[in-house]
Amino acid sequence: MNSRVVIVGAGHAGGSAAAFLRQYGHTGPIVLIGDEPLLPYQRPPLSKAWLKGEADAESLQLKPDSWYEEASVSLRLGATAASLNRGARTVTLSSGEQLSYDYLILATGARARTLPIPGADLAGVLALRTAADAEALKGALGPGKRLAVVGGGYVGLEAAASARALGGEATIIERESRVLARVACETLSSFFQAYHGARGVRFELSAGVAGFEGADGHVTGVRLSDGAVVPCDAALVGVGAHPNDELAKDAGLDCANGVVVDIEARTADPHVFAIGDVTHRPLPHYDRQFRLESVPNALEQAKQAAAAIAGKPMPPHEVPWFWSDQYDLKLQIAGLPFDADRQVVRGDVAAARFAVFHLKGDLVQAVEAINAPPEFMAGKQLIAKRTRIDIDRLMDAAISMKDVAA
Ligand code: FAD
Predict the structure, then answer these.
(1) pTM exceeding 0.90
(2) In terms of Cα–Cα distance, which of 284, 320, 313, 283 is closest to 299?
(3) What is the CB < 6 Å shell around ligand 1?
(4) pLDDT digit string, tens, across residues 3-53
(5) Which atom of ligand 1 is nearest to the CA of 322?
(6) Which of 151, 198, 210, 387 has the greatest number of C-beta atoms within 10 Å?
């Protein structure tokens, strides 16, 4: 209870771990190190409400300024952890300051992937991971302004929707033949593409990007592999994120697309935990290891590490879930479609109220729900309890999800 905890990374996972430690009764010192100059904040609004001017910096914070002093959480903001010495149990900051720990929590998250192509360093070629990134992107949006988005993932689609909401133009350039190819099923991809298309977003699919064109040091267009140019005033590169696992790797911890942890968020070193986007973690419902990038995952692992350190019982395992907001659409996804052999659509795709269930035999592996919270909630429970279902009843939207799940 009196052990000294150092948390590296003051993002969603790191900030939440500090809060859960105090909530679970940990009384020892907590030091939170973050290389951004800000208190821990939520990233999801950065591509949504924040871009549209509907959220201010304070509303993004996980906890108000006063909480850290009240909770005796010592902050090192704008400070980078440069190295770990696991033998001596110390963290060295780039300033040279050394901090000792009994328990270390690595919560270093992920960084936006970049494209190593000509013109990538032009002004106006942007990423979207931090509040500073979002501020720069916000400045590039507005009536008549043309945004090119490289990458048709969630962040890219959300940014395109925000650009359109602000009266600008948006073109999504995607290497695959459909948007969301890595993260959603074909039904969802074509639904989102049609929904965005009807709201004026343009698409270049199956399109490689060869480089960025510029004038006077500023981007003016995205050059595709076939030579065509998509003209723009700003280009957002949204091609995924890379785990910040170098600190762990250099300290000899096992990493495989993220820091390898067990179901209590512990690394092979019993004094070192890792949580959030930076981890490669077990998924108990699926019997495999995976790296997740979501707020629910950051919170679940923050709870696990805090409970283990504070000597509290482990929280129950959660089914992975995620959400995305675009226009008036609320997408909620529970589970992952591993080993699924069948997809079943329930509801009305044309009315933008439906869910796609991914089944392995008569077990639900995942559900992707558009404006359909009952399907999402019931689907999540079906996955958690491994309940066998009657597929004909599932497909019949006249039967309530409560009855299908009963
Ligand atoms: P982060 O929040 O990235 O925090 C890690 C922190 O550690 C960063 O501040 C980083 O700078 C810092 N750091 C790294 N290395 C060091 C070091 N050596 N020393 C000190 N500090 C360091 N998830 C959802 O579930 N739903 C959504 O709708 C959604 N929308 C999103 C929209 C955007 C634009 C983005 C970027 C993400 C979105 N996510 C969403 C994902 C979600 O925000 C992340 O999963 C979550 O932030 C992960 O938390 P984390 O603490 O692991 O990482």
Answers:
(1) yes
(2) 320
(3) 8-14, 33-36, 43-44, 46-47, 80-81, 107-110, 128-129, 155, 244, 247, 276-278, 293-296, 298, 322-324
(4) 999 999 999 999 999 999 999 999 999 999 999 999 999 999 999 999 988
(5) 25
(6) 151
